[in-house]
Predict the structure.
Amino acid sequence: MDRDTRLKRLRFRAWHRGTKEADLLIGGFFDRHSAGWNEAEIDWYETLLEEQDVDIMAWAIGAQAVPRRYQGEMMIRLKTLNYIKHPE
């Protein structure tokens, strides 16, 4: 699958999580950062999307320890939370 198609699929998955809070966090992160991702970062995000929303959100806000496989620069960016735009 080419990069553009892969990113389109990931964007859909990121914005259709099941709760508005998860959509804003996971989808907002995708929209803010995905344009500059390399293949390893796309792989990381794709794997992250397999996790439960409650776990991703808990890692992002620091309520749970981040598993080793997700630690690093991408998780640091996810935890920054400066990419969430609240709809008015």
